[in-house]
Amino acid sequence: MNEQHVRWYTQYLSRDFDMLTFGHAGYPFILFPTSLGRYYQHKDCGLVGSVAPLLAAGRIRLYCPDGIDRESWQNKAISPADRVRTHLAYENVILHDVVARVRAETGHDRLGVAGAGFGGYHAVNFALRHPDVVSHCISLSGVFDVRSLLDGQTDDNSYFNNPVEYLPKLDDPWFLDRLRVMGIVLGTGDQDHSRDANLHLSHLLHTKGIPHLLDDRRSCGHDWNHWRDMLPHYLSRLRN
């Protein structure tokens, strides 16, 4: 399994940024870490290993960027507005630095995004905001409401980064047409404390006529052993 560690200086955070990549060919996916997770988390916790046969067969390539939730959403030392602005800087790293690298290395103009837990939030929010870039979105036990991280404060930036707020009012045909052809998967289960969040997001997608798969599993909770079952199952069914 081809593995590479890359580091570069990004203007959007004014510092170096790290990422691990896996695979030699295939459809590209950006895999966001869980809350407070780092770029090596998915390797250490076995999520990359769970899809090793797909990587070896050249069906997918994984890009695992660093996470900065400790500096943004979880940073109580700065104001809620600055937490969101720091997140937006991170989004720019993904949108401009990482996507450009993916396109240059794979030749694919579009890509998939995925994540577990709060990584599911990152995947869903990025996909909804950039449907011209994202073709597939896989969330494993995702959480999608960030208001609890903002001390009750809100502004336009926080609103437009909170899917459960902006999705109900989304009526722009440019977005909806692209979202309706995106491959969206929400994976959850009866022992997942994020289950209600997934059921709610599924309902919101239904009201907008956005097709998706809600995989509500039995005896499935919010942990790595379940995500190691989910991700290879969803990726093995990938049709690009």
Description of the molecule:
The chain is an alpha/beta fold. The chain has one domain: Rossmann fold (3-Layer(aba) Sandwich), CATH 3.40.50. About 40% of the residues lie in helices and about 25% in strands. It has helices spanning about 40-45, 45-50, 50-55, 80-105, 120-130, 155-160, 165, 175-180, 195-205, 225-235; strands spanning about 5-10, 15-20, 25-30, 60-65, 110-115, 135-140, 185-190, 215-220. The protein has an eight-stranded mixed beta sheet with strand order 1-2-4-3-5-6-7-8, with helices on both faces. Strand 5 (about 110-115), helix 5 (about 120-130) and strand 6 (about 135-140) form a beta-alpha-beta unit. The longest helix has 27 residues, at about 80-105. The chain is globular and about 45 Å long.
Summarize this structure briefly:
It contains ten helices and eight strands. The chain is α/β, with parallel strands linked by helices. The two termini are 22 Å apart.
